[in-house]
Amino acid sequence: MQFKELSVSGAHKVSLEKRGDERGFFARAFCEKEMGAHGLPTRFVQHNMAHNAHKGTLRGLHYQAAPHGEAKLVRCVRGRLFDFMVDLRPESETYQQWCGIELTAENRDALLIPVGCAHGYLTLEDDTEVLYMSSADYVPESERGVRWNDPAFGIELPIAPKTVSQKDANWPDYKA
Question: What is the model's pLDDT at position 17?
Fold first, then answer.
């Protein structure tokens, strides 16, 4: 596995280290030992999958309030998406900053979102599937969100969203 630090503190792009031959390749998509050696989460209690029928589908930005905060390791297994996060940790040097990367079935990269960051993605192709691991159980009472277009963050998406849920469209302005 290869790790690249991103502009939000604690966020990483995780790339496969492929070993291949004429049959194809083999790579570890997760390794507790390697993740731990980089100071990253090693315990994931849920593995979730989402299917998105149409290009331009936006999901997020979601997070869970303490003490149920969760880190996520997100990978696109079909199609293409722009995955992004906002740092909502007041003690962080990157507080209220955002970053994002393109994840595709072809590049097979993953995005590690640290605890305390809100997460969202925008599909760039029809029929896009996302597989992600969470470090904490989902607790409905702790679910929170911020709007992708909240002026507090200045998030720049590669295309305009076409489909956004009522809940995600109506999160209130972020108050620091």
Answer: 86
Catalytic residue among 62, 68, 95, 174: 62
Mean pLDDT by groups of 10 residues along the chain of 176 residues: 96 91 86 91 94 97 96 98 98 97 97 98 98 96 96 97 97 86
Residue of 51, 132, 138, 174 marked active site: 132
Is residue 47 annotated as part of the catalytic site, yes or no?
no
> Domain limits of the chain?
44-168
How far CA 32 is from CA of 14, 39, 43, 93, 138, in Å, comes to 13, 10, 8, 27, 22
- C-alpha–C-alpha distance, residues 103 and 153, integer Å: 21
Q: Is the pTM of this model over 0.90?
A: yes
Q: What CATH number belongs to 44-168?
A: 2.60.120.10
Distance CA 145, CA 53 (A): 23
CB 151 within 8 A of CB 95: no
The β-bridge partners of 48 are 132
